[in-house]
Amino acid sequence: MNTPIRSPRCAPRHDRRGVALVIVLAFVVLLTGLVIAFFSRSLLDRQISNSSIDRAKVSDFADGASNAIIGNLKQEIVLSSSAYTLSSGTLYVPQSTGSTAYNYMLPQMTSGSFPLNLLKISGTAPFFTGSNGCVPTSGSTNAISVSSTTPSMNGRYVSLARWNEHYLLPFTGSDNTPTTSGTSTPFVPPNWVLVTKNGSNPVLPSINSFNGNSQYLTGGSNAVVGRYAYAIYHEGGLLDVNAAGYPAHLAVCPLTRRPSLTQI
């Protein structure tokens, strides 16, 4: 007797459709996760890139401000010295004639009621004034009449305590808020120096004059791109902290550096 051969029983059609739907949904979820991860990574990379660009801009601006201040010091040397041309370059020797002989061996001190160790400050006085010229060349200051302690529109400012983080100024109280002579006379903080697109330092009568001058505003032909303030101190009279405190009969040269002290 022949036994009939039966084909295997196939799954119902609706069961096959259900499995296919689950597989499709799984692929959709996986693809959605990949897309979200891609855009999240793209946004994160963009934020990191923008942050790096902002840091680079700030660093470049700070370097430019430092170069401008150093350039003023160099210009002061040129205006207060006699130049001698050598084969290896130019030698500047302090002027040795007239009533101001050798008065310019050191940079000119800032005029006004300031501590004796404060050499230069961005304020209402010119950087240098001499018989051969001035810095800036106009004979005026390149800073505006706005203190660096005055909050700007975004609320940022430099406090008196921050100006004296180095403790080179006398101070009173529990913080390091500086004074001019250890008394209640307040320390006059530096003023802001504005920098425009072309590198100039505009000085107008008041801050309202800037607001009324469209070329200095955002989007203007010569918009202000940043600001800085500075104070330069004469450290020639400071003690060497690597040797200060040792008995007077000990020589300084053979002494080893104190590991717990930091040189100023």
Write the topology of this structure.
Blueprint: H1 13-79, E1 81-86, E2 89-94, E3 118-121, E4 128-130, E5 133-135, H2 160-163, E6 193-196, H3 207-211, E7 224-228, E8 231-233
Antiparallel strand pairs: 1-2, 3-8, 4-5, 6-7
What's the short version?
This protein is an alpha+beta fold.
Task: Write up what this structure looks like.
- There is one protein chain.
- The protein is an alpha+beta fold.
- 29% of the residues lie in helices and 13% in strands.
- It contains three helices and eight strands, in the order αβββββαβαββ.
- The protein is elongated.
Q: Write down the overall geometry.
A: elongated
- Straight-line N-to-C gap: 112 Å
Number of strands: 8
Strand content: 5-15%
Strand order in the sheet with the most strands: 1-2
Radius of gyration equals 34 Å
> Helix tally?
3
Low-confidence stretches: 257-264
Characterize the biggest β-sheet. Answer: 2 strands, antiparallel
Structural class: alpha+beta
Order of helices and strands: HEEEEEHEHEE
Helix content: 25-40%
Mean pLDDT: 77
